[in-house]
Structures are given as structure tokens and as C-alpha cells.
Design a protein that fits this description.
Elements lengths: L1 H14 L3 H16 L4 H8 L3 H9 L6 H10 L22 H15 L3 H16 L1
Helix pairs in contact: 2-4, 3-4
Length: about 130
């Protein structure tokens, strides 16, 4: 009986998400936001529930190779995009406040349809960065 319980424990540990899973999930979230997609829209595009898409992004559930390939196609990036920067990633993959603001800014910018407004906002950012 003890051997069976130990085997179940090993199987459960093997199914747990790792830091790599959380890193890949954060890269999916980052790219989704850059494209201006909601989690619900993303879920529909890859054929999963909103809850499942949320779990992928948080690194709670692992993503199969086939699903990751599908996500890469939807987000218009190579699969390698999700691993870029993994080797130098910090222990914690939590998105910092600054990163969150940058992602939100990029998402909002992509939603501006008027090209003159986009250029004006871009010029404002350049001016503020210089000062």
C-alpha cells in the first residue's frame, strides 16, 4: 500500500506545473495583450474554455506540444517565442507593476484606430522619455 501511495505521489508531482510552465504562460499572456485579445477571445480561438486559457497563462496547467503550436499560430509567433529569455528568467515570473503597465499601454495603443492619435501618443512618449 505504501508503494502505491508513493507512486501516486510521484505521478502527481510529474503533472505539476514548473517554473518553465509559468514562464511560458507569462509569455502567452504578454503576447495576447500585445495583440489586444481578451482571455475569452484567446480561449475561443484555441478551442478551450476561458478557465483553461487562464490556467495556461498562470502556469497552473501544463500545455501540450500540439496546443502550444496552436497558440503560437493564433498569436502569430514561432513556438520558440514562448521560451525566449527563459535561461535568464528570475526565480519569480510574476509580472512587475511596471511590466503590467507597459503591457496595458501597448494593448490600449493597439486599440486606437486613428493613426494621427497613435503618432501623437508616440511623439508624446518620446518627448517624455527625453525629459
Amino acid at each position: 500500500m505504501a508503494d502505491r501511495n508513493a507512486a501516486v505521489g510521484v505521478a502527481k508531482a510529474a503533472n505539476r506545473a514548473t517554473e518553465t510552465d509559468r514562464f511560458v504562460g507569462s509569455r502567452i499572456r504578454e503576447r495576447r495583450i500585445m495583440l489586444g485579445l481578451s482571455q475569452q477571445q484567446m480561449a475561443e480561438l484555441i478551442g478551450v474554455t476561458y478557465q483553461q486559457a487562464h490556467k495556461y497563462e498562470r502556469g497552473i496547467n501544463r500545455i501540450s506540444a500540439g496546443r502550444l503550436f496552436q497558440i503560437a499560430q493564433v498569436l502569430k509567433v514561432p513556438v520558440s517565442f514562448f521560451y525566449d529569455g527563459l535561461e535568464q528568467a528570475p526565480d519569480s515570473t510574476e509580472v512587475s507593476v511596471r511590466q503590467r503597465m507597459c503591457l496595458e499601454l501597448a494593448r490600449n495603443f493597439s486599440l486606437i484606430e486613428n493613426k494621427r492619435y497613435q503618432e501623437a501618443l508616440s511623439q508624446l512618449a518620446r518627448t517624455l522619455a527625453e525629459g
